[in-house]
Amino acid sequence: MHREQQERAEYFHQLHTGPAPLMLPNAWDVASARVIENAGAQAIATTSAGMAWSLGYPDGEQMPVQELLAACARICRATAAPVSVDIERGYGRDAQDTGNVVDALIQLGVVGINIEDGTDPATQRLAHPSVLCARIACARTVARQHDLRFFINARIDTYCTKDVNAAARLEETRTRALAYIDAGADGIFVPGLADLDEIATLARSLPVPLNIYAGYPGAPAALALGELGVRRISLGCGTMQATLAHLADITSEAIADGRYDTMGKAMLTVAEANGLFTTAGTHHDRDTSAAVTHAIGLNSLQ
């Protein structure tokens, strides 16, 4: 394990303990990661949906794992910041498959993951918490084998499903969170949780940082969330959704009006865009080809 990666992992943990919540505008490829880093982000977190869309797949583990790893390899080579990767439900049929993905990501230089309980494909209902507990435990074991303080952010989808009665959601979320923490999670992510009182209640009841999703119009401001005890804020696929909508506006204006005003309001120069990549290939130095090839050979993953 390279000392630089261990230092990035420690730094990523420290970012969750600062005076303000860690803000993560999520990236989907190298260009978005470098723009986000260049704009002042202290860490890079990927959006699984955005990454899938950029590669021509719908969200929901439809993107082949080798394409996920190849995209992460490019991001890690291009940024000096800590990188955390959204691996959805963990890829593959069981916890060992998830462990293999985590092993490959660590070899690329990644220092954390986001992993969710989500919906069981067989039942279309919220997965039993034991499934994610097993995957988290396996990921933690792999990280220990690498002697890396790997950050596991456990996403709970109780607020993204109709399976859980609204009155029971907060307690079900807390129960799952504590189970995931016992399994080895370092943080808890609850997309869809927007009620300020419930956010404050959950934050107080957890011994680890609470991550809230803010990738939608009208989301509470970072200052307000920080006052409630939130330690991490993710914009998720909202960053790419906004980017795609802006591209649609540029295109519509050009086609319908023959004008380029929207595009011209804010553009990087060619030199500025090229400047994002002048150090590409110097960061997160790893044998990335070996890691990706190893994952491609794991037939059970896809």
Briefly say what this structure is:
This protein is of the alpha/beta class and 302 residues long. It is 48% helix and 11% strand.
CATH homologous superfamily label: Phosphoenolpyruvate-binding domains
**Radius of gyration over C-alpha positions, nearest whole angstrom:** 19 Å
Q: What CATH architecture do you see?
A: Alpha-Beta Barrel
Fraction in helix: 40-55%
Structural class: alpha/beta
Tally of helical runs: 13
The N- to C-terminal Cα distance equals: 28 Å
> How many strands, what sense, and barrel or not for the largest sheet?
8 strands, parallel
Q: Kindly report the spatial arrangement of strands forming the biggest sheet.
A: 1-10-9-8-7-4-3-2
Topology:
Elements: H1 3-14, E1 22-24, H2 30-38, E2 44-45, H3 48-54, H4 65-78, E3 83-86, H5 95-108, E4 112-116, E5 119-120, E6 125-126, H6 129-145, E7 151-155, H7 169-183, E8 187-189, H8 196-205, E9 210-213, H9 222-228, E10 232-234, H10 238-257, H11 261-264, H12 270-275, H13 288-296
Parallel strand pairs: 1-10, 2-3, 3-4, 4-7, 7-8, 8-9, 9-10
Antiparallel strand pairs: 5-6
